[in-house]
Amino acid sequence: MVTFDEAQIMAWLTPLFWPFLRVLAVFSVAPVLSSRVFPVRARIGLSFLVALAAQPTLADQPTLSLNHPAALGWVVQQVGVGLALGFAIRLVFASIELAGELVGLQMGLNFASFFDPTSNTQASAVARFFNHTTVLLFVVLNGHLLVLAAVVRSFELFPLGPNFMVSLSKIKLLGLGAELFATALWVALPLIGLLLLVNLTLGFVSRVAPQINIFAVGFPVTLWVGLIGVAAILPSLDLPLATLMNQALAVFAPMEPAR
Questions:
Q1: How many domains does the chain have?
Q2: Residue 102 forms part of a structural domain
Q3: Labelling 33: which of 87, 137, 143, 185 has CA 20 to 30 A away?
């Protein structure tokens, strides 16, 4: 009769349990994967599959029993690093959505806001359009594969160990957020400049011909110019998104540029 003792079971489970916690934390926060349309059971099963497939690359990681006094610190480390990685990816989506908010503000469409039940957020029509476009580009550019690769390679920069506070101190999300939102402003800058020029032109026309109802003319003009500008920048939106993804993932693991 084959028997197993507690030490053998812990030796088999602990190398799989710690990566599983980090991957599950990423899937709980990262966009698309954390959506309500993605079942929780499927999320847990996919996290377990990723942790199992990553075992050959994590052979040199230290092991720790679950009933060890330092196990709580390891749990905090795995969950903290995973949540930070997922939040960094969410910042990428938020920065593109911010660009849409700025464009919608200049177009005069910010009054048209919608509530998204899948993410529990409310945003304007242009921001939601930019967000959905970003989701499509995220899948087309294999962003989900980059996230999985970053999770596995994050064990090189943030290995398992008792010094979990040292690992968390290396994650500088404040500076990362500043860089991401600065890049997002560059995405919205051409449309903001174009719409500003249109508004200045309409202001000049209102001074030259006061009899024209500028409010009745200005809104359709800015709306159509904004829609044409959005259609013009959509084909080149993949490059800023790839740049933002590389900036976000480089904090946790050096990644190859997305193509």
A1: 1
A2: yes
A3: 185
